[in-house]
Amino acid sequence: MLPLQAYVDQGNEIDRLETELGRLEDVNADLAAEVNRLRTDDGIREAARDELGYVADGETRQTVLAAGDLPVDLPDGWPYGPLGDIIEIRSIDP
After folding, report:
1. Nearest in space to 50 (alpha carbons), one of 30, 69, 34, 27
2. Distance CA 2, CA 68 (A)
3. What torsion, rounded to 10 degrees, do the Cα atoms 46, 47, 53, 56 define?
4. pLDDT at residue 7 greater than cutoff 90
5. In angstroms, rounded to a whole number, what is the distance separating the alpha carbons of residues 90 and 84?
């Protein structure tokens, strides 16, 4: 490898690593903010609600179930043909 090419490659690698470092610093900052929030009384209550299903005195817990999957075995013909096409297109992973 030519010295000039090695120099350019090192510069590109430094740029890539600096970008990755910036992303990791952002993630660390977000995690630190989350830790600080969880150290508060409100943060503890929120975590207890989310993780353990905690309900305070005088509150009523209500559970909402997620909607089930839509059927994909639709009959042929109008209006099911275009609807089946839409479902197929939306189910494709990007």
Report:
1. 34
2. 60
3. -40
4. no
5. 10
